[in-house]
Amino acid sequence: MRLQDKSAIITGGANGIGKETALLFAQQGAKLIIADFDEANGLAVVKELRGLGAEAHFIKADVSSSHDAEQVVAAAVEHFGRVDILVNNAGITRDGFLVKLEQAQWDQVIAINLTGVFLCTQAAAKVMMAQGSGVILNAASVVAQYGNVGQTNYSATKAGVVGMTKTWAKELGPKGVRVNAVAPGFVTTNMTDKVPDKVLDVMKQQTPLRRLGQPRDIANAYLFLASDEASFINGAVLAVDGGLSF
């Protein structure tokens, strides 16, 4: 059990990569807080986790709210006594070409994907620093480095996440807290369900492995970085993209 008795918070844990990460962490012995705005699916995930024998709790939260972020961390401390792992997985897209992108679309993505990561990390870091240990994992993306048509807002947030990851690794490392990021390529999730097949085919052709990633591919990366096997990895951005980024 690579995460035996470790307490973990996973934001955006009700669906997709977050859900898959929660299931994998539970199988490896973690105790979990699932934080998500999607209450129905969040509660269903917790039921599934408990079916695996894991201790798990759902907290309905808007990560862009400082109050909610603090409540999520407080719940972990209340139930488990500590916070060992934070996975900042929550994220949304509101795509549009630059000249047609509305400010509301910009604001929504910035609020969840960037401000949410900041607020949740700020709350968790205080607990981890007091403990003298902890792992913070952030969801970046290949678009942070390479951009993507129609994703001005999303690309900006993911580039910001990379910058924050490296800054926090330097700030928190001396306190025993590691901070890393995972940068997925094209992954099959509920976000891609509405993408036309011809577009998905292009994504596959752009990826040297000629397939889309699966949520478990990303969850496996989170598991490695969360485990003691990665105890000397800090400030890294791990590309999990089938070779798309080189």
From TrEMBL:
<dbReference type="GO" id="GO:0004316">
    <property type="term" value="F:3-oxoacyl-[acyl-carrier-protein] reductase (NADPH) activity"/>
</dbReference>
<keyword id="KW-0275">Fatty acid biosynthesis</keyword>
<dbReference type="InterPro" id="IPR036291">
    <property type="entry name" value="NAD(P)-bd_dom_sf"/>
</dbReference>
<dbReference type="GO" id="GO:0048038">
    <property type="term" value="F:quinone binding"/>
</dbReference>
<feature type="binding site">
    <location>
        <begin position="154"/>
        <end position="158"/>
    </location>
    <ligand>
        <name>NADP(+)</name>
    </ligand>
</feature>
<dbReference type="InterPro" id="IPR011284">
    <property type="entry name" value="3oxo_ACP_reduc"/>
</dbReference>
<feature type="active site" description="Proton acceptor">
    <location>
        <position position="154"/>
    </location>
</feature>
<dbReference type="Pfam" id="PF13561">
    <property type="entry name" value="adh_short_C2"/>
</dbReference>
<keyword id="KW-0444">Lipid biosynthesis</keyword>
<feature type="domain" description="Ketoreductase">
    <location>
        <begin position="6"/>
        <end position="218"/>
    </location>
</feature>
<feature type="binding site">
    <location>
        <position position="89"/>
    </location>
    <ligand>
        <name>NADP(+)</name>
    </ligand>
</feature>
<keyword id="KW-0560">Oxidoreductase</keyword>
<comment type="function">
    <text>Catalyzes the NADPH-dependent reduction of beta-ketoacyl-ACP substrates to beta-hydroxyacyl-ACP products, the first reductive step in the elongation cycle of fatty acid biosynthesis.</text>
</comment>
<keyword id="KW-0443">Lipid metabolism</keyword>
<comment type="pathway">
    <text>Lipid metabolism; fatty acid biosynthesis.</text>
</comment>
<dbReference type="InterPro" id="IPR002347">
    <property type="entry name" value="SDR_fam"/>
</dbReference>
<dbReference type="GO" id="GO:0006633">
    <property type="term" value="P:fatty acid biosynthetic process"/>
</dbReference>
<keyword id="KW-0276">Fatty acid metabolism</keyword>
<dbReference type="GO" id="GO:0051287">
    <property type="term" value="F:NAD binding"/>
</dbReference>
<comment type="similarity">
    <text>Belongs to the short-chain dehydrogenases/reductases (SDR) family.</text>
</comment>
<dbReference type="InterPro" id="IPR057326">
    <property type="entry name" value="KR_dom"/>
</dbReference>
<keyword id="KW-0521">NADP</keyword>
<dbReference type="InterPro" id="IPR020904">
    <property type="entry name" value="Sc_DH/Rdtase_CS"/>
</dbReference>
<comment type="subunit">
    <text>Homotetramer.</text>
</comment>
<protein>
    <recommendedName>
        <fullName>3-oxoacyl-[acyl-carrier-protein] reductase</fullName>
        <ecNumber>1.1.1.100</ecNumber>
    </recommendedName>
</protein>
